[in-house]
Amino acid sequence: MDRREFFRRSAGKAARTVTEHVNNKVQQNAAHWIRPPFAIDELDFLLACTRCKACTEACSYNVIFPLPARRGVQVAATPVMDLLNRGCHLCEDWPCVQACDTGALKRPELEADEDSEAETQAVLWPKLARVTIDEKTCLPYAGPECGACRGSCPVPQALLWKSEKPTIDETVCTGCGLCREACIIEPKAIRVQSKYAGEQGIG
Ligand code: SF4
Ligand code: SF4
After folding, report:
1. What distance in angstroms lies between residue 1's CA and the mean position of ligand 1's atoms?
2. Which of 53, 65, 107 to mutate to test the pocket of ligand 2 (most atoms within 8 A of CB)?
């Protein structure tokens, strides 16, 4: 290997290492919030989003808001969803996505020859967040009847009732949070977390 090739390879490797490090860091940060529907991967999102607020203004349910400056200059004013307080209605025509001219929010296209159920599901229903039921506080798990969240879910087969108790199929659930919005107890018995968060919750 000559010297030029050595430096070319080293530079390529160093650049890859730096990119991987930055990517890991932004993914960790992304565990603290939930991006609007069809947001591209966090690092690409931060590079594409111009903080124009068009998606925020397009949402008539006021689900989207800009991150405050205290979150850091890299993410300040980028759009996130307030799914702890209101659900996303998964609007049929996705006004928030349509309002985004930069591709930061971008609906994937279904390939003509693509018949995978998972791919079709990803085009129809974006994965927004992770939603789970807190069986310690959800009323039917303790005895009393409740059906407040029954019928709140727009996604077929995501919120299921077994023995008069609600359960969530996480493989189908989009994380829209409408069931949490419908929950009548405080604190809510339905948790909404960033899909990157594991058990950390939204910080
Ligand atoms: S899909 Fe509808 S409710 Fe959900 S964020 Fe977009 S505009 Fe708002
Ligand atoms: S419309 Fe697109 S570019 Fe504008 S703030 Fe929303 S995500 Fe960013």
Report:
1. 55
2. 53
